[in-house]
Write a structure and sequence with these properties.
Elements (H helix, E strand, L loop, with lengths): L1 H41 L8 H24 L5 H23 L1 H20 L6 H5 L2 E5 L7 H9 L2 E2 L4 E2 H10 L5 H28 L6 H6 L1 E5 L2
Antiparallel strand pairs: 1-4, 2-3
Helix pairs in contact: 1-4, 2-3, 4-6, 7-8
Length: about 230
């Protein structure tokens, strides 16, 4: 009897691990396809009027980061805090705001392609993206054999990773924050959102490796699940 219980436990552990592995590689493949297409579109001048301004803003930000490193090395302990705060206010925050503002079309094209692919395409393809099709899994509503458009949209809203553009709901919030002209409000909200993003992604990782069937946070929110296709 004990041997039988051990066998059943190992079966579920291996099953969960394989499901997690399939979901992980399917996600990577899907994100690769989305990023290739989104990056290609956002690199076209007529589809991204901010392209040159974004590249210039990135250069300014990188130069400011290099200068910031020198400031930290050259200031003494007595004046370091004051000098650092002044440098952040005068040299770091402006290019950060520019990068955030001129990243608009990069983010928009990413979101458009992501939702067209992971919602519209997946909905009309039986809950499967190309990545899920390759690894023989699909998204369904919990307890059902197909997924609704509403739940697929909600699921995608809380999908994504900081390895790429970030969690989609956070990307949308970042776009809204980039419209704020006040420097203090911008910095406060940007850091607050990044902290929330990190906490959310930690919760996602915990749910991935602790929940039965590798149910992720976005599945819990959208009341969906990922199942194997026979």
């Amino acid at each position: 009897m004990l041997l039988f219980k051990c066998f059943i436990m190992c079966y579920y552990i291996i099953g969960d691990f394989m499901n997690t592995k399939k979901r992980f590689f399917a996600f990577l493949l899907d994100m690769f396809l989305v990023l290739i297409l989104a990056t290609s579109l956002s690199n076209l001048d007529y589809l991204n009027p901010y392209k040159d301004k974004y590249e210039n803003a990135i250069k300014k930000y990188n130069d400011a980061m290099s200068e910031y490193g020198e400031v930290l090395l050259t200031t003494n302990s007595k004046n370091s805090l004051k000098d650092t705060l002044n440098f952040l206010k005068d040299k770091m925050i402006p290019p950060m705001m520019e990068v955030s503002k001129y990243n608009l079309f990069n983010s928009l094209w990413y979101l458009i392609i992501f939702f067209l692919y992971n919602v519209l395409f997946a909905y009309y393809n039986g809950g499967q993206t190309l990545g899920k099709k390759v690894f023989k899994i699909k998204v369904v509503d919990k307890g059902e054999d197909k997924v609704s458009f509403k739940n697929l949209t909600l699921r995608s809203l809380f999908n994504g990773s900081s390895l790429f553009f970030g969690v989609n709901i956070i990307v949308i919030i970042r776009i809204l924050i980039s419209l704020i002209p006040n420097e203090f409000a911008f910095m406060f909200l940007i850091y607050l959102v990044e902290i929330i993003s990190v906490i959310y992604e930690v919760i996602v990782l915990i749910s991935l490796f602790t929940s039965k069937g590798a149910t992720l946070t976005n599945d819990i929110i959208a009341k969906t699940e990922v199942i194997e296709v026979k």
